[in-house]
Amino acid sequence: MTGTWRGRAAAVATLTFDVDAETPVLAHGRRYARHAMTMSHQAYGPEVGVPRLLDMLDELGVPATFFVPGWVAEQRPGLAARIAERGHEVAHHSYSHRAPTSMGEGEERADFERGLEVFARQGVEISGHRAAMWEATWLTSELVAEHGLLYDSSLMADDRPYRISTGAGEIVELPVHWSLDDWEQYAFLPQPHVGSVIEEPEKAERMWRAELDAMRHYGCLFNLTSHPFLTGRPARSLALRRLVEYALNCGDVEFLRCRDVATRAAGDATLVPRELEPPSVDPGTYPRE
Amino acid sequence: MTGTWRGRAAAVATLTFDVDAETPVLAHGRRYARHAMTMSHQAYGPEVGVPRLLDMLDELGVPATFFVPGWVAEQRPGLAARIAERGHEVAHHSYSHRAPTSMGEGEERADFERGLEVFARQGVEISGHRAAMWEATWLTSELVAEHGLLYDSSLMADDRPYRISTGAGEIVELPVHWSLDDWEQYAFLPQPHVGSVIEEPEKAERMWRAELDAMRHYGCLFNLTSHPFLTGRPARSLALRRLVEYALNCGDVEFLRCRDVATRAAGDATLVPRELEPPSVDPGTYPRE
Amino acid sequence: MTGTWRGRAAAVATLTFDVDAETPVLAHGRRYARHAMTMSHQAYGPEVGVPRLLDMLDELGVPATFFVPGWVAEQRPGLAARIAERGHEVAHHSYSHRAPTSMGEGEERADFERGLEVFARQGVEISGHRAAMWEATWLTSELVAEHGLLYDSSLMADDRPYRISTGAGEIVELPVHWSLDDWEQYAFLPQPHVGSVIEEPEKAERMWRAELDAMRHYGCLFNLTSHPFLTGRPARSLALRRLVEYALNCGDVEFLRCRDVATRAAGDATLVPRELEPPSVDPGTYPRE
Amino acid sequence: MTGTWRGRAAAVATLTFDVDAETPVLAHGRRYARHAMTMSHQAYGPEVGVPRLLDMLDELGVPATFFVPGWVAEQRPGLAARIAERGHEVAHHSYSHRAPTSMGEGEERADFERGLEVFARQGVEISGHRAAMWEATWLTSELVAEHGLLYDSSLMADDRPYRISTGAGEIVELPVHWSLDDWEQYAFLPQPHVGSVIEEPEKAERMWRAELDAMRHYGCLFNLTSHPFLTGRPARSLALRRLVEYALNCGDVEFLRCRDVATRAAGDATLVPRELEPPSVDPGTYPRE
Fold first, then answer.
1. What is the pTM of this model?
2. Which of B99, B213, C135, D93 is deepest in the core (most CB within 10 A)?
3. ipTM greater than 0.95, yes or no?
């Protein structure tokens, strides 16, 4: 494949939905399974949010990528397949949604592979990965390459796709950012304590539209992360819809699934592969462990 | 009863007021009873907020539901009866306002029944329940059914009423949500530490109006939770009034007491009863207790 | 004195400035005296904020009340006198700005009296008191009465002045509220950790104007609390000035010093004295100490 | 040099960029070096933000000051020189970005000198200093004077430059403030926990424009602090650009590098040198250590 990752578009947009359901709460402690309200708050995502968003995407005629933890796909058989059948991409979002940075290397690998096995058993084709909480380690991109996936979408070193050279081969990184995430705008739970004030959907819409416009100016990847338990709520869905309609009206924004951007970026000779390396820190300079 | 829960309305609105008074603070620790300012901050709810809101509801001609902890009804005899006399519903909001998730099963049951006894002694008819802090356990809906109540209003698995099948019979759930709650917008206390920034009433009004509009689009239950110690303040009352006036002008929003929505939903054959079940979690996947 | 506290005004406005300087930080721990930046942040209040605000009040022609901790008056001799010479009221704001709720009764009394002695030595006449952090105990209003002061301004049980009957005589309460305070909108420090996001002055101005309008509707006391180290900053001063100009243009808002409102309220026979009492809590209901 | 620091301008503006890269996170604990996403989030600053901002400054034709920790200059050889070659000032921002208030005097001195040595080795001329996290101690300004630097920019006791007399000679302070910092508006990280809600660039732009206007009114130093890992993002860069364009259109705002303002202030006889002194606190008044 030749050409540049962006083609003729001023900016490329990837709508991504992290179908976390109960997992981010259970990762705080399995005792939260006792909390019926909290569980119901999370279940809203796959049960109400996903169908609503799928219908909306149909109406808008744009494709999206759904990052699903293996545990969620396992607990709700048929969920991942239904998403794929609607023409969207299903991608790997860990098994348990525990942050890789909270695990040892063996644990991270086991969780990664357990997730992949769920999708293999369900016959869902996987091309890419996003770390739980975006909390990738330096091992993460290597695991992605080693298991033959095309891309990762957890890092933030750029606002355009970049190629990463790992010991196990090359992958593409589709960078994310906190300012293009619905979590910081909408999430609120008292136990476990999540979020502070809850923002208006109109504020998020305005902020993301300004970012999209700036990314059209600079030629970036507008990689938006939404959570069905958050953005699946009525007014937030409609705000997302208005944002997509705005982007479509711009005429220079192309909506793609992550795997399609990654395929393009992998073949874009203008992108020079980078090698990732942790900064070297010594206890003399940074005494706090 | 036949027909659907929503009738011909695009959306049904339930104005609910949680008359918590001192209880959410005392639930943090009874030492706060020493804090005269904090106690006065909470007392404003029943003493200034409730009369102001009752007058406003009269002027608007809309009915509402007041969830009252038993402890509050006991400390302020006549409060619950006065609310009921104005044509509004009084509903059960625990005895002490301690979160069910912080109690064992025996404790939760005792607190639930102690609350009901207060209302029985005061001759106030109770049809529904809302868990303190919305922090229901899996036992909560069973307690509601077992004691012959019609509905609960603490869970978040949908944005329309749903029927729940429990071991003790069926109830209706009138779901709530953080984004339709004045607490996250307005609450602030340094000790115990509550809230972060304080939002403008106009922002809350705008956000709730957008949610109402979206719920008219999707056909939902607009179940708004306000606290008299918060929304009873001058500018916040007037913002709520403007919101209700807006809804009335829409022409397709019906205002009901919770018990009336629940009665309709209980008889709505299009709603299939759900069985609630905690997710099964194992320590291998989620090692943190 | 006869007549009602409000006279013919729709609302009465009291501009109050808490000249805390370094004290709220030192109350977190005297180790912060080592933090040169934090100390400079607080010193801005009396050194830059107070002169700027005094000039602004002159230009606007409105009187105000400055609550000054005794420690601050002591460290900066002449500060309290200069404020009083400009026609404003100086009032008692504790000695050390430690919260009364964090002290035993003996400690609270000692701190209260030590503050009064500073003003006595400086020949500054004191008529009223505001608790540090507004964190009054049930003893506080008694101390105010016992020392012959006219009013306290720390409680929140109403939005109009109220009369309090204490064992040591009667006082007037001029209630405050978090939503009429600049701290929650503007304060930020990393160590000690204070605040979250910093709001625009225009947002605070809009919120306070809406509250003023609502208080004109309901006939309340618009008792605004500002801190010179916060509101003394350039854009915030100008926002406060626009707010006052708006109020003056309303034509039905009267600006008074706290002592003048208190004198009126003390003689307002329509206000029935209240007796304050802590709620009685038992460990059976609230087991957490 | 004679004349006043402000010349004929209504306000002087200094655009300052703190090129912290990984250092503020590593100062929380060197274990964060394992967090690949967090490291990538910080690396965005020097790698994407700085080049973008340098181009933008060229287009706007305004000079700026870049505060760089020695560790960052060392890890990315050529970074500081490239900034200086574009006509901007590079200034000293500690070696490790650990807060001086968290170190003993010996440690603070060692870190200060280690930073200066990096710039000396790289041939980058240094005239001024800003403390990491602005967390200066009372020793900091003395270190600045002792090492022959012209100014410090970490304190907040004024909104105009001020002269400080230290035991080691005189320096100029160019005061900063939380409300003129992009960190409180934009920063967000879950581990280490940083920030709460993420604000719109338009809100920050509006707030800073209002401050600039007020500072033109009062004749102040508009000393804006931005971080390339935050403000280097697309929509935030464009918001900063609009702010600068607004200021240029005012016609009475002068953009200068910090060292130029400091040189002017050092020669401004209307500014009387101040001696800094910690407040004296005793354990009787402030018992908490």
1. 0.98
2. D93
3. yes
